[in-house]
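RECORD TYPE: inverse folding
INPUT: structure tokens
STRUCTURE:
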């Protein structure tokens, strides 16, 4: 771009849009267009962000900026400074509005944001400046919001499985001849519920080694100084922040973890995180990886006899099925979706130990150790340990979502909200999941080794050594039995509730109230 030349398009690159094949670059003109990126205080503190989450986003953004500069693309990039006084503004809107006034571009272009709130901020800034905002489609995903809307039109219930099968057929993924699925079955979930047994997982592969370069080290220093009070640790930071490192992590997963991923997909083990899971979700959500290359790599492993079909199908289902499905739900249901609270949970905040990990419940303590150390845990501890505890306790579903956004490296609004408020907390009343994911401590005992090392007894529902999950499970069913009685999938559990005596239920309710008082925290978002 020539000095003082008028700017045709200001191309806004958000922190979770770090893909080189972005639509923004389709008609990029180096003489007339300018790239724009910004780190902001507001985006770091509107939820009380984990330090590792901050390092991951800022370092990945700065590496992406450096890559654009090497390609001689002009970019205006706003870095946060160790001293907030040096910032150009406190929030996204302030910084962008000031630049719009100075640069006076003819048009603003951005790829569809994955956060409804960000779209509103961009539109507000554009309207105030009197400049057109053009929102471009996101080619990262298989299915556009418009295509999902067409799919859902006229359907009484939205269920992931038929959507997933349709996409398999549409894209010819894991298909045999005609419309038949590879191996004769659409879903191998029944083969993906293996347990480790008393001996535990054997010969777990080490995580891929990521070298911290000077750019990442400078971001770590910034976060430790400016966000010192935020939760989490940075001394174990090992997330990829470049496209090259992301591809290396994909290769490592396909080679070392995918073969046993399916069998042990739902299993938990103390100190075992990530077990056979990939940790690729954060890299996909930053768009350092494309879902198509992940799916293609897994299928190639199956075709070359390096991974079994149940593992490959389970991995493909997460990407082509669940990931695309919940994104469709997000754009179809927002902004009203964020306000949903089907079980009318109002008073309870997330527990204190969801921020610091200080609890003597073995399953929660181990999961929180992983979250504080790495800003990640795989989907079963999220759903059936932390998520379930929040649900049973009665935490407001949006508060749980806000906590998840703060603490998990892979949490973006479009993927977090339907998974937390919807699937985990049943706040949407059944749009995402057809029933609440609730169970007693017996489930955790079956799928892990936590209970054998815990002071609480998973079968006991009240008393000094009662498992809090078991107490709160029966209390949850008791509190919501009228609402849940309308759900035919809850019949078995509600019938078991009816077998409880009045005296038993009275003790359970009393103990549940004590647990809620112990868990109460000051909300931090």
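DESIGNED SEQUENCE:
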């Amino acid at each position: 771009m020539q000095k003082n030349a008028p700017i045709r398009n200001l191309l806004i690159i958000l922190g979770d849009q770090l893909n080189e094949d972005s639509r923004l670059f389709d008609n990029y003109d180096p003489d007339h267009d300018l790239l724009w990126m910004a780190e902001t205080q507001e985006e770091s503190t509107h939820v009380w962000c984990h330090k590792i989450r901050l390092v991951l986003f800022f370092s990945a953004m700065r590496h992406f900026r450096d890559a654009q500069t090497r390609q001689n693309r002009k970019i205006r990039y706003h870095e946060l400074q160790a001293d907030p006084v040096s910032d150009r503004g406190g929030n996204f809107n302030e910084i962008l509005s000031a630049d719009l006034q100075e640069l006076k571009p003819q048009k603003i272009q951005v790829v569809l944001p994955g956060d409804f709130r960000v779209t509103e901020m961009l539109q507000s800034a554009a309207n105030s400046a009197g400049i057109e905002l053009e929102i471009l489609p996101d080619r990262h995903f298989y299915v556009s919001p418009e295509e999902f809307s067409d799919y859902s039109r006229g359907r009484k219930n939205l269920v992931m499985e038929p959507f997933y099968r349709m996409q398999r057929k549409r894209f010819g993924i894991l298909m045999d001849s005609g419309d038949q699925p590879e191996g004769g079955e659409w879903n191998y979930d029944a083969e993906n519920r293996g347990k480790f047994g008393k001996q535990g997982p054997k010969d777990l592969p080490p995580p891929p080694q990521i070298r911290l370069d000077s750019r990442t080290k400078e971001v770590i220093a910034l976060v430790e100084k400016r966000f010192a009070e935020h939760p989490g640790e940075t001394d174990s930071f090992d997330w990829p922040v470049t496209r090259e490192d992301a591809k290396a992590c994909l290769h490592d997963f396909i080679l070392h973890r995918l073969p046993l991923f399916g069998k042990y997909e739902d299993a938990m083990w103390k100190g075992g995180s990530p077990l056979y899971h990939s940790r690729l979700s954060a890299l996909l959500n930053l768009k350092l990886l494309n879902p198509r290359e992940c799916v293609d790599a897994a299928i190639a492993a199956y075709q070359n006899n390096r991974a079994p079909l149940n593992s490959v199908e389970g991995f493909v289902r997460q990407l082509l099925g669940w990931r695309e499905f919940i994104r469709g739900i997000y754009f179809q249901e927002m902004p009203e979706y964020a306000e949903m609270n089907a079980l009318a949970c109002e008073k309870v905040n997330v527990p204190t130990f969801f921020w610091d990990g200080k609890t003597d419940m073995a399953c929660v303590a181990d999961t929180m150790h992983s979250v504080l150390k790495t800003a990640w845990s795989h989907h079963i501890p999220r759903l059936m340990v932390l998520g379930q505890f929040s649900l049973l306790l009665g935490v407001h579903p949006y508060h749980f979502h806000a906590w998840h956004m703060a603490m998990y490296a892979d949490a973006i609004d479009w993927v977090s909200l339907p998974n937390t408020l919807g699937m985990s907390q049943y706040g949407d009343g059944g749009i995402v999941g057809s029933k609440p994911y609730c169970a007693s401590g017996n489930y955790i005992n079956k799928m892990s080794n936590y209970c054998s090392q815990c002071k609480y007894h998973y079968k006991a529902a009240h008393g000094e050594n009662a498992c809090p999950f078991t107490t709160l499970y029966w209390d949850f069913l008791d509190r919501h039995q009228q609402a849940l009685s309308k759900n035919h999938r809850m019949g078995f559990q509600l019938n078991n509730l009816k077998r409880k005596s009045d005296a038993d239920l009275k003790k359970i309710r009393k103990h549940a109230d004590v647990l809620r008082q112990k868990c109460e925290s000051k909300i931090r978002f």
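NOTES: Residues 309-333 form the longest helix (25 residues).
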